[in-house]
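#struct-queue
[09:14] JT: dropping the first one here, sequence first, then the structure tokens:
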Amino acid sequence: MGHTYDSVVKEFKAATTKAIDHLKNEFKSVRTGRAHPAMVENVQVEYYGSRQGLKNVANINAQDATTLTIKPFDPSQQHAIVKAIQEANLGFNPIDDGKMIRINMPPMTEENRKRIAGQLKDMAERSKVTVRNARQDANKHADLAHKDKAANMTEDSHRALKDEIQNITNSTNKQIDELLKTKTEEVMKI
């Protein structure tokens, strides 16, 4: 099979790092009461026959705490950008003034904050599921390496590998919980 102690740990750490990075990226796009370009940068825009992320077709800036401005690289695509933002169902009403697009953030209500906190919890749980699946794969690889005579893995090193996989899982889940706690506090802050 070709799995060794180090290769199993390396692959598993890469998978958990990817899960954390994905969660951080997802959290960036969540509204916290302050305008932030990440809230719209991944909106897909129909741009000359292909789908592009908004950040690839326009400059996005936070003018102030409640206003985003979007200046298309090609002014003829302004209408397509407005349409894409509306279709993304983010709860924003883009205003096209002919030169740029403005998005005024409506004030966050307590109900919105609680709904968003629930979404954050769901995102974190999906990341934990990803980590659990990666742990399962790592444990399978550890078992295969133990059975493979060429890998030369002893019973003690097999047990140590399984323990290390579990320790990485626990550490990653703790990191996910901390990210969730921080982002939830940010959303709930008035």
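[09:21] JT: and here's the second one, same format:
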Amino acid sequence: MKNIIFVFLVLFSFPMQSQNLEIINTKNAKGVNNWRVINDNVMGGISNSKIFQNSSGELVFKGSVSLENNGGFASCRLDISNVDLVGVTSFHLRVKGDGKIYQFRVGTINNYANYCFDFETQKDKWININIPIDILTPRIMGRYSPQSPEFKIEMTRRIGFLISNKQQGEFNLEIMSVKGSKTDINL
């Protein structure tokens, strides 16, 4: 009987453990290279943006959104098709913004949809954002796309950030880290 109680205590007294997979960590230069900028000029707009590392080492997504010529968005993305995300149940961001609303985007293989989450920044304050993968919504060209396939983490090929929704003018988003959280339930 003592052995059964001991086994029960060992199996059920430890909390579930979580592992964090670093996708971007500017402190060790992980995920700072190979970003691509895509702005509304692909459709005739004149918004502009760039992504670079500042003197503190953080990634900075910066530019200006213009509504002229039917424009209105700026974005950046990073190919992470070589990162094994199997088992990831949420993304964790550490960002500092300008009070505007940004979108975290996850692109998948063989699918035009991006799976997205909108978040509001606080001007000049570092904030942590937790995004469970089951709340990501599929969007194609900015519109909700309910006919898109269900999101599958193992199909991820890129992550990125976007600013749109008629937020005209200058913008600035600093990115310290993006992590994927894997919950280990096999204790």
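[09:30] RK: nice, looked through the second one.
[09:31] RK: The two ends are 22 Å apart (CA to CA).
[09:31] JT: good to know. Residues 138 and 144 are 6 Å apart (CA to CA).
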